[in-house]
Design brief:
alpha+beta, 2 domains, 4-stranded antiparallel β-sheet, 2 helices
Length: 100
C-alpha cells in the first residue's frame, strides 16, 4: 500500500523564445504552491491559465506530487509555529503602537 499523500501541482513553462529564456517551476499563488487534491481540479485551473495566456511564450501543465504523511505533519507543525510567532510579534507591535 502506498503511504504517500498525492496531490497535483500546476507548473509554468516558459519557452526559449521568451526574453527571459526557458524555465519551468511550480506556480506560486498568494505565497503558496498552487496544488489540488485531484488531477481534474488541477487540469481545470491549468486550462484556465493557458486560455488566459493568449498564446504567449508561457504555458501551464499539471504534475503529480507526493509527500510522506510524516513530512506533511512536520510541515504542518512548522507552519503552526511560525503562525504563533507571527501573532505574538504582531501583538507586541500593536501594544507598542498603543503606548506611543
Amino acid at each position: 500500500m502506498d503511504s504517500n499523500i498525492h496531490f497535483f501541482t500546476v507548473w509554468t513553462h516558459r519557452s526559449a523564445k521568451s526574453i527571459f529564456g526557458a524555465d519551468s517551476h511550480p506556480v506560486i499563488r498568494n505565497g503558496e504552491l498552487l496544488c489540488f487534491p485531484s488531477e481534474e481540479h488541477a487540469q481545470a485551473e491549468c486550462d484556465r491559465l493557458n486560455a488566459a495566456s493568449g498564446g504567449s511564450h508561457v504555458h501551464y501543465s499539471v504534475k503529480p506530487a507526493h509527500i510522506r504523511p510524516a513530512l506533511a505533519n512536520d510541515l504542518h507543525l512548522l507552519a503552526e509555529a511560525f503562525r504563533r510567532v507571527s501573532e505574538r510579534d504582531l501583538g507586541k507591535t500593536d501594544i507598542s503602537a498603543a503606548k506611543s
